[in-house]
Amino acid sequence: MKLALILAGALAVAAPAAAQPANHADHAAAAPKAAAPVQGSGVVKGVNAKAGTITLHHGPIPALKWPAMTMTFKAAPEAVKAAKTGKSVTFTLNAAGDQVLSLQ
User: Which of 32, 67, 92, 94 is most solvent-facing, going by the fewest CB within 10 Å?
Assistant: First the structure.
């Protein structure tokens, strides 16, 4: 009889502990890997220093699955200063393809 009471008591205490959800809220998520910058080449079609943008007619950019086209990009201040309309350039875009990081 004592054994039955001890087992019943142990089960009563252990059951709620076993039913606790596996909460992983205190675990940090793995940091995403930084994607590499993307290279391209093209011709500067326009510069808007006030807006901080450069318009480029670029060749295909396979890393972004883009065909050749003309696009206006936000650009780093150094890239805006280096851009001259009509100049052939190679450029580096951020991994998302929405900002010119550098212009050569």
Answer: 32
